[in-house]
Structure formats: C-alpha cells, structure tokens
Amino acid sequence: MALDRSRIERIFQQLGKELTKPTTLCIFGSSPAIFCGQQSRQTQDIDVWHANSTYDSGELSRACSRAGVLYDPKGEVDPNSIYFQIVRPGIVALPKRFETESLAQYGNLKLVMPAPAILSAAKLVRANENDIRDVVWWIKSRNIKARQIGEAIEQFPELNDKETAKENMVFINLITKEG
Amino acid sequence: MKKTDPRTLYVNALDALLKDEIAKVVLTRDFELLKEIARLAEQDAPISMAMTDPSLYSSWRSAVTRYHLSGWTEMTPERVSDVCKNLNE
Question: Chain-centre distance of CA A130, in angstroms?
C-alpha cells in the first residue's frame, strides 16, 4: 500500500491523537509534496530529518505502531508497509541549518518541512525521474525562482552535492521564466 | 542540437508526451526531443484528429492537460532552444 494524500493525512491525524508530548517532525523527500497536494505521486516511506525534529523515540514508536505504520525499520520491509524513516546526515546531507515551513498541527504533533527551495535543491542532487517531477511540481505550485534554488544549493555542506545540483540547474532553466 | 528526421522526432515526442515520460527525456538532455515535446504540448491535439482518430485526440489532450498540471507549462520550444544555446556558448 503506497501513500497518497488522504492516507498520509490519516496517519498524521492518528499520530496526533496518540502522542501525549509535544512532537515536531520535519518531513522531507516526497511526502511533503504529497501532503501539499501533488497528484499521481505515491511513496511507501515518510522521511524524517532527525536534526530538525523533536520527539520521544519510544512514544513515537508506540504511536506509529498504533497508527499501523512502521517506525524506522532497519531490515527488509514488506512492500505493502508504510514506514517512517529517521534520517541523519550521511548519504543524504541537508544543510546544517535551513529554513523550515510549518505544514500542519495535529494535536501534539507539529509537522514542518524544509523550505521548498531546499527540498528542490536536495532533489537536484540525486535527480532521478521522480525527483525531476517533484522539483517541477514545487516550482509550479510555489512559484519558486531559479535564483532561490541556486541560493539553497549553496547551503549544502558537501562540495560534490553542490556541484551535481549546479550541473542539474539546467533542468530548472527549462521551466522557470527567469531561465 | 542534433538533427533527427522530422517523422521520427514527432513519433518519439508524442510517445513521450502520451506516456508522461518528460522527466525521463529531460534527464537524457535530448534537447531536440524536448523541444518537439514542448511544441506538441503547445500546439495541442489538432481539431481534425477528433474525427480521424478520436482515441489519439483524447489521449493527446489529456497529456497536454497533465503537462500543464505537472508544471511543464514554461517549457516552451523557445525556452528549450534558449537553454540549449546557452549551454553551447
């Protein structure tokens, strides 16, 4: 079972009911766009950027269990499962500090995401087909300028990531007026 | 920009548009094909096709709608040419 907008919203509503302590989850990857209404996009996982999140691991794990989703699985995952992936700097390297945007509040659960320009810049680092679709969607839905993505790229800590994202800015130039 | 024969280019571009494979083409940096995709999206399905090939007409129109809803509106043939030109300068 993959996540679409209604499913992801139900999960967060359920978590908000279950959590007794104030919790902030910074979601990134494809789930913020799905949450914000990107059509025909599905995913199996909800990526959570640990550094910008505040949560009690035990309580979040229990809440996930009650909501029917897996919490940070490390082994093989059933293709029908939905899971939260807690991500720390490593293969994925978001900027050390970045602007976040509030997405929603469900009870004790506050959902935030990196600013869309940061999300887009991160997607230019990997730049697979889905990433390109996601970036195009963000640019259209939030009227992001190429300049903003360029500035976001500069915030990334890894030189290789910056170089790759800059090379892939050509994709952005195809779809932004300021080209 | 490379030079593919017009018929092949048209067929490949329409195929990519109908199958929603624009991002895939973008990744290959095939600007000639991208420009043709953008042209077909901008032109939209020819009205005459509604009579001659209603199925393709319907699919083409749906693909153009999806093109815009997905955010590709600004990718016009002129934009593709400009980006390609800037890369070669």
Answer: 13
- Which domain covers residue B66, as residue numbers? 6-88
Q: Which residues of A touch B73 (CB under 8 A)?
A: 140, 175
> Does A178 contact B at CB distance below 8 Å?
no
Count of structural domains within chain B: 1
- Domain borders along chain A are 5-114, 117-173
- Indicate the pTM of the whole model: 0.88
- Three-class SS of residue A147? helix
- Contact A59/A68 with Cβ under 8 angstroms? no
CA of A31 vs chain B CAs: smallest distance (Å): 16
B26 CB neighbours in chain A (<8 A) are 132, 171, 174
Interface confidence, given as ipTM, is: 0.88
| Average confidence (pLDDT) per 10 residues, chain A, 179 residues | 84 96 96 89 89 96 95 90 92 87 97 96 93 94 94 94 95 82
